[in-house]
Amino acid sequence: MTAVAATARPDAGAARRSPFVRTIQHQLAMQLRLGAWFWAVILVGVSVVTVLVATLGTVETSIVQYARQGTLWFPFSMMVLTVMSGLTPHVASGMTRRSFAAASAVVALVLAVAYAAILVGLLQIERVVYAAAGWPQTLTDTGLDLTSSASDIGPLLISLTATGAAATASGLLVGIVYYRAGGWWGTLALPLTVGPILGVGLLVSSAIGPITLPVVGEGGAWAVGSASGLALRAVACAVVVAIMLAVHDRLTRGAALGKPAL
What is the pLDDT of residue 206? Predict the structure, then answer.
């Protein structure tokens, strides 16, 4: 009996892998497949546009920078889909709402960091290509106001990760509110569930879409370009994202199991 028990322990340990870990692995596997297609499209698009601009005119600004909006709204939509399509089967499989909320939060943050790192990496590759071709790599996207050059890797990573995390956390919030309250209330709540993206955007840029707004705290400790300003902005963004994830966790734990109301 002892030998049998000893032999069974490795399998039993594997079977006891937590729902939290299993959910993270499942969600990340799905995001990896979808993300591969997303970045393939981005690479093809950037390459084609760069060649066309160089052929028909003069390359004066970064082309890669315009992928920033895609790196926000694609993961955002994926997080909405994760909640709307994943919560019911997760709980129906015997796992808890708590593990789903926690795993989704981890995946949301992983996506934000990964997409920011990939975009910064592409900007560095583009910088090398532009330098070899004699083109100026000017950053004109207002969402990159914390830096003036693609060589400022630290500020770039911080600003892109902050806005990316706000987007993915917002996607979770939008998804759970639609899941619980249905289409009408979910739509009416969009200013609250999507609004934090704009708040974080204000902390790292001077404009949101067509609306030009003053940079938060242009002088003093919050000054753009200073170490203290960068640190304070990063902390403020982290607090906003943490609150969003905490609200998502609370709403998910109290969600009634069933078909999402639309």
Answer: 53
